Amino acid sequence: MKYIKEWLVDYDLSPTIAGYLSYTIMILLIAIICIIANFITKRVVMRIISHYVKNNRFKWDDMLLERKVFHKLSHIVPAIIIYIAAFTFPNYDAVIQKGAIIYIIFVALMVILSLLNAINDIYQTFEISKQRPIKGYVQVANIVVVIVGVILVISYLVGESPLILLSGIGALSAVLLLVFRDSILGLVAGVQLAANDMVRVGDWIEMPNYGADGDIIDISLVTVKVQNWDKTITTIPSYALVSDYFINWRGMQDAGGRRIMRSLFVDKSSITFLSEEMNENLKKIHYLTEYLTGKEKEIADYNTKYELDESHTVNRRSLTNIGVFREYVKHYLQHHPQIRQDLTLMVRQLAPTEHGLPIEVYAFTNDIRWAQYEAIQSDIFDHLFAIAPEFGIQLFQSPSGNDLKNLVVSSYQNEVRGEVEHKSYES
Q1: Which one of 163, 188, 213 terminates a domain?
Q2: Are residues 28 and 148 in the same domain?
Q3: What is the structure's pLDDT at 338?
Q4: Is residue 104 part of a domain?
Q5: Which of these, 152, 210, 245, 303, could form a disulfide with 308 (CB 3.0-4.6 Å)?
């Protein structure tokens, strides 16, 4: 600075003007040096680093590049140059250095935040990240880093120790708890969710209170995002998964079988004992031939052993059409190629209701995909609805308006036919 001022004075400039010009020239020189240093850092050093990162055998360092960790770190170079050059301005060096230090702290904060996010990205490349996500912990670390950075800046500006400021924060703890309530609850919930392995990214969950029914696509500190089957996104507070009710279908997905639990409602008036004619017809059904032959012999032996009177159905042991139908459905499912035979499979009779006698099919498909599961279930019940009349079974359904209309028309036609026949008889 002194040399530049003397050089300007040699050109017959007044000391005052020379002083101002020397300051201007020095500022321009420092600015040019900063621009050159920034250019070298961004255009040369960063390209060398990027080339090395992209062409080595490691993949985790690509995440550092995507999060611009090195790019943000390069911003420190001009600040260091300004800090070093501050001594050339004796009257303002303290202010310049403080500004440079504060800028360096903020740049360091940005670098640390990007580094933490990059660590989370690297962690997500491992399979364990679906079971133990750390995004919530990374977000907590981000908050802590920001708070520490702000405290360092304030303490540097006021010239006090950071510990003094930290002791003063105790008085603001109630306010901080109020401001960061969701974050604190989310942190606690995140620990419980991870420790108990309650949810993972990719799990299908159902939470009626929040209208959520779909796959988890993101687990963060405060929220869990669920993509519903209609492609909408439902955001659920993390602590709600600990305090509220939800269903996780992961067990079904891991087992590889999806449950069918649906009933056919049989009209109770159509339930009857099996006649000899019906017995012979049902023996022609492939799944029932062996069963009916064996049962026929077993019942005949039983009736003979106990000398039961065969003159009336009530007096002897007999098969029913509903029992044979249940056996047919069971054999049909046992031979179905898309039903898991290693999981629970049964056809059971539930308590009678006003809608008839429920015959429930309880089985598991070998395909858990929604569309395929529905197609398998529909094919099974299409067949059962069509085959039920072969057993003399009528399935129940509530009468519709058309049924009542046909009943009235039929009644009217019978009444007219009766009057016509009566007149014919009188004539």
Answers
A1: 188
A2: yes
A3: 94
A4: yes
A5: 303
Q: Tens of pLDDT along 106-126?
A: 888 888 988 888 888 888 888
Q: State which residues form the domain around 349.
A: 258-391
Name the pairing type of β-strands 233-237 and 223-228. Answer: antiparallel
Please report whether residue 151 resides in a domain. Answer: yes
R_g over Cα of the chain: 42
Q: Give the confidence band of 206 by pLDDT, cuts at 50, 70, 90.
A: very high
Beta-strand pair 204-207/247-248: antiparallel
| Three-class secondary structure of residue 4 per DSSP | helix
Burial class (CB in 10 A: 0-12, 13-18, 19+), 418: exposed
* Number of domains forming the structure of the chain: 2
Instruction: Kindly state the tokens that stand for 393.
Output: 């079974």
Q: What is the spatial distance between Cα 218 and Cα 206, in angstroms, rounded to a whole number?
A: 15
Cα(217)–Cα(244) distance, rounded to whole angstroms? Answer: 20
Query: Looking at the domain assignment, is residue 264 inside a domain?
Result: yes
Give Cα 412 distance to the centre of its chain. 60
> Would you state the structure tokens that stand for residue 363, as one six-digit string?
């089985």
Kindly state the DSSP code that residue 42 receives in the 8-state scheme.
I
Assess if residue 102 is contained within a domain. Answer: yes
Last residue of a domain, one of 147, 166, 188: 188
Is residue 121 domain-shared with residue 17, that is, in the same domain?
Answer: yes
Give pLDDT tens digits for 1-29: 666 666 665 666 666 666 667 777 788 88
For residues 94 and 82, give the distance between their C-alpha atoms in angstroms, rounded to a whole number: 12
Strands 357-365 and 212-219: unpaired
411 Rama class: left (phi>0) / alpha (psi -120 to 50) / beta: alpha
Local structure of residue 133 (DSSP, 8 states): -
300 in the same domain as 158: no
CA-to-CA distance for 148 and 213, rounded, in angstroms?
40
